[in-house]
Design goal:
The structure is a single chain. With 261 residues, this protein is an alpha/beta fold. The chain has a single domain, classed as Rossmann fold. 44% of the residues lie in helices and 15% in strands. It has 9 helices and 7 strands. Strands 3-2-1-4-5-6-7 form a 7-stranded parallel beta sheet, sandwiched between helices. Helix 1 packs across helix 8. The longest helix has 29 residues. The N and C termini lie far apart (39 Å). About 2% of the residues have low confidence.
Length: 261
């Protein structure tokens, strides 16, 4: 098991990527703290994560229902994770979606940005800031920030585009900050994902065809394996990186008129 003995805090353990990541981490032996603000989503993620943990579910899976924009609540949840599992090794920031309207920059009410931007970036900052002293105490750690592939598909969505690009910058800055304490910080930029997450088994027939090199939408499982790489020892020499997981969408966009063979 690649994460046996590790403790992971999953911020945004709601659905899709936020569900697939803790399920895979539990399969690989990690103790997992699941945090999100929607009770129904939290319950389903907990059910699947407990199933992945098997007989050790009671010892390896915990939950907390809270709004990640509430800094005091985040501090309490991190403290409870450390108390229950004895430390903290991995932080996965999967929260930060925004389901509201995406007006053009010049047409947007200023209030739009005060609502959207905290949801997209403040959650990451709150969680990472609360977790940092515990990662330092551990002597090592991995922070994984899950954003979006912003370079090709987010034109006309200024708050979302800006926030997701901002996540890459934050990840690189934190990688500098964490280097003396052996804390690695990396970013994952997923491409277009199928929502909601289909039930396993996953196959090409499960997901609709899409005009990318991979000819399908991504699933949460695709991103979960990228997160597993960053969480485990295999990526010990990787920090400050942005891993694009987009089925070749970015590569294909460089040649919009070229047809697949």
């Amino acid at each position: 098991m690649r994460l046996k003995g590790k403790v992971a805090f999953i911020a945004g353990a709601g659905d899709n990527m936020g569900r697939a990541i803790p399920v895979l981490f539990a399969q690989e032996g990690a103790c997992v703290m699941l945090v999100t603000r929607n009770q129904a989503n939290l319950d389903e993620t907990a059910r699947q994560t407990r199933a992945a943990a098997g007989a050790e579910a009671d010892q390896r899976v915990a939950t907390a229902l809270l709004d990640l924009k509430d800094q005091a609540a985040v501090l309490a949840a991190i403290a409870e994770c450390v108390r229950r599992f004895g430390g903290l090794d991995i932080v996965a920031n999967v929260a930060g979606g925004y389901s509201g309207a995406h007006p053009e920059l010049t047409a947007a009410d200023p209030a739009f940005f005060t609502e959207a931007m905290p949801n997209l970036l403040q959650t990451l900052i709150n969680v990472t800031d609360a977790a940092w002293p515990h990662l330092q105490a551990r002597g090592s750690g991995s922070v994984i920030n899950v954003g979006a592939a912003p370079l090709t598909r987010l034109v006309g969505t200024p708050a979302y585009h800006g926030a997701k690009l901002g996540m890459i910058g934050i990840s690189q800055s934190l990688a500098w900050r964490g280097a003396p304490d052996n804390i690695r910080v990396n970013n994952i930029s997923p491409g277009r994902m199928r929502l909601p997450l289909p039930q396993p088994p996953y196959s090409a027939d499960t997901l609709p065809k899409l005009g990318t090199l991979a000819t399908r939408y991504g699933s949460g499982v695709d991103v979960a394996y990228a997160a597993l790489y960053f969480a485990g020892d295999e990526s010990a020499w990787v920090t400050g990186a942005d891993l694009v997981v987009d089925g070749g969408d970015a590569a294909m966009s460089q040649f919009p008129d070229k047809k697949l063979p």
